[in-house]
Amino acid sequence: MAEPLRVALLGCGVVGTEVAQRLTTHAEAYAERIGARLELTGIAVRDTDRTRAGIDPALITDDAEGLVGRADIVVELMGGIEPARSLILKAISHGASVVTANKALLAEHGADLLAAAVQAGVRLEYEAAVAGAIPIVRPVGESLAGDKVQRILGIVNGTTNYVLDKMDSEGWEFDDAVKKAQELGYAEADPTADVGGHDAAAKAAILANLAFHTPVSLSDVYVEGITAVTAADVARAKAEGYAVKLLAICERLEQADGSDGVSARVYPALVPHEHPLASVHGAFNAVFVESEAAGELMFYGQGAGGAPTSSAVLGDIISVARRRVLGGRGQSEPSNGALPLLPIDQIRTRYHITLDVVDRPGVLSKVTEVFASHGVSIETVRQKLAPVDGAGNDGAERAELIIATHLGAESALAATVKSLEKLDVVNAVASTLRVEGLQ
Ligand SMILES: NC(=O)c1ccc[n+]([C@@H]2O[C@H](COP(=O)([O-])OP(=O)(O)OC[C@H]3O[C@@H](n4cnc5c(N)ncnc54)[C@H](O)[C@@H]3O)[C@@H](O)[C@H]2O)c1
Ligand SMILES: N[C@@H](CCO)C(=O)O
Ligand code: NA
């Protein structure tokens, strides 16, 4: 058996607690798998006075810097940008390998951190950063490295999937569902990162880097969250044969000159009930990958929560520990390809537009004329016979039109919605949702 490896844990919250407990309870099994014991030397936290069930109080410290300086493996589970970033850089400069679940940090500073790891010849692993327990970072980054990934559609945020699913299946109110997701340990410290789509956007950036071998950071990702999605949207979608899902989409797109570009984006979308992603319920995550040679792949499992996330963290710890025992090269070069990043208006998608309109002769032709003027082709138009419900509605002269478009340019679709908003016969554009996952 090789010399023990000193492990420093930064953070003892939802995920850190589970990691610390398993490092202790499974110590013998891990030693056999690695060929060396893992010695947990300390756990850095903000509040040292709190008692933590199942954690040896002697391990708790507020001296994260000191801990990092004496470790072979640093496991960062604090979250946030600073001091996580500086501590990871310090660990790397000391020759320690690093494991992190911090998607926000990786999406903003991943390139610099990976470059530092390459320079120092150490590993930086982050399987837990995308879709929690689901093995997806290694499959996309390594198993599919010889393939050509065309598209990734991912439900990569457990909180928002839980919220949308509860609204869909049990008619919960948005705020109640968010509160419950927080109680269950799925949500970020600040849940606006979840419902605003930024957590999913960080994961989209990480996946796009891996899939397209091109540097993509958080600011390159177009983001819409789920705060504007109403119970009426979810109910209407269900009646039309769709589930509303917050999707992270990474796509290789052909540009006008025939060369490839990359789009990374997050928005709530209508997914047809027949698509496998529509059956992903609760806080579960799933990542649907389409690639040239492999075809369609689906990765499914628990994407949030302490225990599931600890599985991915522990797998990474064992992987970097084995590497230290066996020796060999550290991190491979980070993405250095150069596919251009395409803004949202250059993608192609489909819209479902719900209009609250005046119900009288000639309205439909006025509405369809707007679509035609923007070169947008309509697939179906449905008018609800019942008048639109709601405050202030006298029930006499209003109707709901649901218009589904064919695949079209985002720029034309968005311009169509703007023109519809100005049309005198349109009381309101009640909702606009993109449709994804149709062949
Ligand atoms: N909770 C999940 O389901 C989940 C899933 C995947 C990834 N993650 C990521 O894992 C990381 C940890 O998440 P969590 O849910 O366990 O968070 P948490 O808020 O429950 O725990 C954070 C821990 O870090 C400590 N900490 C924070 N700032 C510190 C500082 N400046 N100095 C010392 N200690 C500090 C806190 O004391 C606490 O022990 C985050 O990056 C998060 O995005 C979480
Ligand atoms: N807040 C995140 C945790 C997992 O990254 C989620 O809800 O998916
Ligand atoms: Na994962």
UniProtKB/TrEMBL annotation:
Protein's UniProt keywords contain Isomerase: no
Biological function: Catalyzes the conversion of L-aspartate-beta-semialdehyde (L-Asa) to L-homoserine (L-Hse), the third step in the biosynthesis of threonine and methionine from aspartate.
Pathway: Amino-acid biosynthesis; L-threonine biosynthesis; L-threonine from L-aspartate: step 3/5; Amino-acid biosynthesis; L-methionine biosynthesis via de novo pathway; L-homoserine from L-aspartate: step 3/3
Species this protein is from: Saxibacter everestensis
An MF annotation (GO) of this entry: homoserine dehydrogenase activity
Keywords: Amino-acid biosynthesis, Methionine biosynthesis, NADP, Oxidoreductase, Sodium, Threonine biosynthesis
Keyword check for Chloroplast: no
InterPro entries: ACT-like_dom_sf, ACT_dom, Asp/hSer_DH_NAD-bd, HDH, HDH_cat, HDH_CS, NAD(P)-bd_dom_sf
Domain of life of the native organism: Bacteria
Residue ranges annotated for the ACT domain, each copy included: 352-437
Enzyme class: oxidoreductase
Name of this chain's protein: Homoserine dehydrogenase
